[in-house]
């Protein structure tokens, strides 16, 4: 007697929803895992309000990915700097091709199978069909001096964790991290996340997700962070 064939995998649907609606989804995001990591490192802070001055990174992402939504003249933002950074990206033909073909700022909700945790993500750019397969791209503003400096930051800032979390959820073929200098000469550093980086990133996100399981033995110094994060799962 033959065993039944496994159910075919279906990628979670990509949702085009406003950011506030995404934030309200009762699921664990990569940003929640960063808060838990900070608690492990003894520097946990309760999440601050999203109100206030627009950040350079947010302004840059809007100008690059959704330029029709960009509003100039925001307090504390140098609009010329933002557009110089965008121009730096658009001087790279391979990135322009991805921008033209991709879906910007898609969200999805999914169940991480190892821990059975309901999770969510919001990618910068997803390009399902390229000559190298299903591709996710994330743009980072950076003060890195050169490519090697940015590559080192990818592990130090846990960009490898984000890459693995997103790639595993969408069963993507590759994940590109694009660092854009926020100072002259506004160089662009593109890192294709390697299998080794993905393995390390996967170990990072699974370790953190296990702390959020109902039966997990949580050290006292993590209890505030775990409580704050899991309370959000009730919607």
From TrEMBL:
Domain of life of the organism in this record?
A: Bacteria
Query: What Gene3D superfamilies does its record include?
Result: 3.90.320.10
User: In this protein, which residues make up the domain named Putative exodeoxyribonuclease 8 PDDEXK-like?
Assistant: 92-210
- UniProt xrefs under Pfam families: DUF3799
Task: Check the record and name the InterPro entries matching this protein.
Answer: PDDEXK-like_dom_sf, Put_RecE_PDDEXK-like_dom
Output this protein's name.
Answer: Putative exodeoxyribonuclease 8 PDDEXK-like domain-containing protein
Q: Which organism is it from?
A: Hymenobacter persicinus
């Amino acid at each position: 007697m033959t065993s039944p064939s496994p159910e075919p995998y279906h990628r979670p649907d990509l949702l085009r929803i406003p950011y506030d609606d995404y934030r309200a989804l009762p699921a664990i995001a990569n940003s929640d895992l960063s808060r838990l990591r900070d608690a492990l490192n003894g520097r946990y802070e309760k999440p601050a309000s999203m109100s206030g001055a627009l950040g350079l990174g947010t302004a840059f992402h809007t100008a690059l990915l959704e330029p029709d939504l960009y509003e100039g003249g925001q307090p504390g933002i140098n609009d010329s700097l933002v557009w110089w950074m965008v121009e730096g990206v658009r001087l790279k033909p391979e990135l322009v091709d991805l921008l033209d073909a991709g879906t910007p700022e898609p969200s999805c909700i999914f169940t991480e199978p190892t821990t059975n945790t309901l999770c969510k993500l919001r990618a910068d750019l997803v390009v399902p069909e390229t000559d190298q397969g299903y591709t996710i791209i994330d743009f980072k503003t950076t003060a890195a001096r050169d490519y090697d400096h940015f590559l080192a930051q990818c592990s130090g800032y846990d960009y490898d964790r984000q890459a693995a979390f997103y790639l595993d959820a969408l069963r993507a073929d590759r994940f590109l991290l694009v660092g854009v200098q926020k100072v002259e000469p506004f160089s662009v550093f593109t890192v294709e996340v390697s299998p080794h980086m993905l393995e390390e990133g996967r170990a990072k996100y699974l370790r953190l997700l296990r702390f959020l399981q109902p039966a997990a033995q949580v050290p006292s110094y993590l209890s505030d962070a775990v409580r704050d994060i899991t309370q959000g799962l009730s919607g």
